[in-house]
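Lab meeting, item 3. Inverse folding demo.
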């Protein structure tokens, strides 16, 4: 669809979705009434700025035990097909309800992403993302049905190498670190990844540095495509052009706001991702969200037609705001630390596994960052090479931080450890790569 038609199509869906919210969502019905919002006036995406921006906190405050009902649930129970919990970093998990229609739309988004990455009929894909409460793995599996693709639903990346030898999968879906581990296991079992049947990798789950993707691609000898998905239904994916992630604009509305969440930022500027469910006219959904603050940041790269032929806008790999840290009045993200670790020459010595801790100093305004990296061989870690490469990459776009480092108000200490000796291995759940202990 051309840009003008697409924008008009999106506005029509926004209008319908807001009308649906007024009729079916207890939270929005009440909010519209209390704030004298006439839903008939919300006709275009700019009008969404009249509506509140909500967050995970808002959802938690409007579900049991805080309220009697799940106030974001917008269908009757007999239409809820599955319910999911998304664990936040704190408090009660958020409840998220999906109808069968929602499943179909989520699957449609994944089917488009996989297709845009060159996957299709006859491909066999191992899904290493976990099933269960994670809606991604399940709906990816449903996407395969639409494409004539075979899914091997392992759920983890710790499956026996026999799976690769016997079923000859052509693709793998997993996180950067899971796929790095798998590559090392395959090499140890005399099946170097480039000699395997695998033709492409699809990575998602968390943001990563370009350097770690490049290294993964080298290790596997194939293309690595990026994907961003969330329970709320974002699902953006890189196409074969690899110049950003396409947003399925007809199925989810994505705005980028300034840090105060007051207004949209211009394309090309970094801001917060704020999502709005988009329903097709006459559609229904289990959980309806208008202006949902994902607490992730991105940049809209372009709304022009992509060389792949698609007209959907493209965004940069989103980063988590919760993984952004401030030192010397300068922000840096976990991804910046990861970039320092994954410098190509470092990878002769390192496994890629890392963790960092931030500590306050004796004097006010002093910060120390301790970076621990796992070495392939603790007796030969290339300490000087690794340090030098790390610092050069880490400070490249952060002159104020570099200045603080020279002035010694920001210290970086390196810690080279052997296999399995990082602290994160002793903590259950998603590894925390940077801990702020100031
Ligand atoms: Zn494209």
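The presenter then showed the designed sequence:
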């Amino acid at each position: 669809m051309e840009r003008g038609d697409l924008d008009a199509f999106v506005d029509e869906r926004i209008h319908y979705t807001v009308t649906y919210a007024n009729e079916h969502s207890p939270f929005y019905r009440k909010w519209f009434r209390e704030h004298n919002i006439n839903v008939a006036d919300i006709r275009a995406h700019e009008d969404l700025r009249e509506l509140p921006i909500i967050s995970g906190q808002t959802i938690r405050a409007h579900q049991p035990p805080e309220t009697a009902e799940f106030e974001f649930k917008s269908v009757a129970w007999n239409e809820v097909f599955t319910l999911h919990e998304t664990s936040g970093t704190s408090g009660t998990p958020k409840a998220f309800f999906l109808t069968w229609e929602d499943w179909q739309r989520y699957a449609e988004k994944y089917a488009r992403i996989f297709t845009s990455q060159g996957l299709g009929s006859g491909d066999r894909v191992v899904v290493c993302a976990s099933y269960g409460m994670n809606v991604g793995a399940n709906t990816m599996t449903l996407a395969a049905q639409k494409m004539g693709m075979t899914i091997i639903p392992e759920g983890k990346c710790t499956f026996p190498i026999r799976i690769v030898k016997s079923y000859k999968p052509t693709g793998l879906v997993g996180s950067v670190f899971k796929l790095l581990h798998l590559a090392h296991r395959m090499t140890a079992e005399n099946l170097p990844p480039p000699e395997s049947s695998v033709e492409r990798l699809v990575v998602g789950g968390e943001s990563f540095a370009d350097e770690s993707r490049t290294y993964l691609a080298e290790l596997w000898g194939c293309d690595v495509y990026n994907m961003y998905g969330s329970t709320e239904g974002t699902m953006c994916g890189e196409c074969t052009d690899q110049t950003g992630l396409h947003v399925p604009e007809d199925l989810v509305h994505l705005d980028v706001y300034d840090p105060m969440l007051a207004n949209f930022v211009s394309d090309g500027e970094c801001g917060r991702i704020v999502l709005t469910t988009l329903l097709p006219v006459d559609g229904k959904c289990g959980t309806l969200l208008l202006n949902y603050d994902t607490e992730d940041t991105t940049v809209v790269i372009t709304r022009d037609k992509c060389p792949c032929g698609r007209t959907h806008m493209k965004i940069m790999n989103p980063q988590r705001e919760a993984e952004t840290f401030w030192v010397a009045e300068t922000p840096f993200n976990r991804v910046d630390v990861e970039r320092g670790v994954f410098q190509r020459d470092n990878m002769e010595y390192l496994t890629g596994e890392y963790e960092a801790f931030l500590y306050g100093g004796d004097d006010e305004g002093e910060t120390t960052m301790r970076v621990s990296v796992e070495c392939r061989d603790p007796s030969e870690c290339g300490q000087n090479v690794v340090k030098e490469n790390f610092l050069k990459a880490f400070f490249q776009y952060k002159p104020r931080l570099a200045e603080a480092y020279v002035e010694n108000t920001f210290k970086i200490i390196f810690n080279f450890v052997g296999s399995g000796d990082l602290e994160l291995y002793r903590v259950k759940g998603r590894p925390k790569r940077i801990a702020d202990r100031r």
